[in-house]
Amino acid sequence: TKEILAFESGYIWIHENLDALLEKYPEQWIAVKYHQVIASDIDFFALRKKLPDPPHTCIEFITRERLEMIL
User: Fold this and answer.
1) Is the C-alpha dihedral spanning 27, 31, 37, 43 positive or negative?
2) Of the candidates 60, 53, 69, which has an alpha carbon nearest to the alpha carbon of residue 2?
3) Residue 25 β-bridge partners
4) Those residues with Cβ within 8 angstroms of residue 11's Cβ, 6 or more apart along the chain or in another chain
5) How many Å separate Cα 53 from the centre of its chain?
6) I want to staple 41 with a disulfide (CB 3.0 to 4.6 A). Which of 10, 46, 62, 68 is the partner?
7) How far is it, in rounded angstroms, from Cα 38 to Cα 31?
8) What DSSP line would sit under 47-71, residue for residue?
9) What is the pLDDT of residue 26?
10) pLDDT for residue 41
11) How confident is the model at residue 68 (pLDDT cuts 50, 70, 90)?
12) Short-list 71, 49, 68, CA closest to 59
């Protein structure tokens, strides 16, 4: 669906622009929609409260540390 493609596109955009995002939002959560950062915060839950549509917004933690995901 359109929402899934927008979410995937946001995720790709974040990783393509990671260096610039690290300069502006180090160690912060960011919310991206349509290739724009629409909100940021150091606290995940505070960030979600700022969003009009959290389930359909790409949210990532911007850090230089490598994160491992356990699925």
Assistant:
1) negative
2) 53
3) none
4) 58, 60
5) 13
6) 46
7) 6
8) HHHH-S-GGGSEEEEE-SSPP----
9) 97
10) 98
11) low
12) 49
> Nearest-5° angle of CA 58, CA 64, CA 68?
70
Do β-strands 58-62 and 36-41 pair in parallel, antiparallel, or remain unpaired?
unpaired
- What amino acid is encoded at 69 in this protein? M
Cβ-contact 33, 2 below 8 angstroms: no
Biggest CA–CA distance in the chain, Å, is 33
CA torsion, ordered 17, 19, 65, 56, to nearest 10 deg: -30
Q: What is the pLDDT of residues 28-63, one digit of tens each?
A: 999 999 999 999 999 999 999 999 988 889 999 999
User: What is the identity of the amino acid at 27?
Assistant: E
Q: In the prediction, which pLDDT does 60 show?
A: 96
CA-nearest of 42, 32, 39 to 12 is 32
Amino acid at 22: L
Cα atoms in the 13 Å half-sphere on the side-chain side of 50: 16
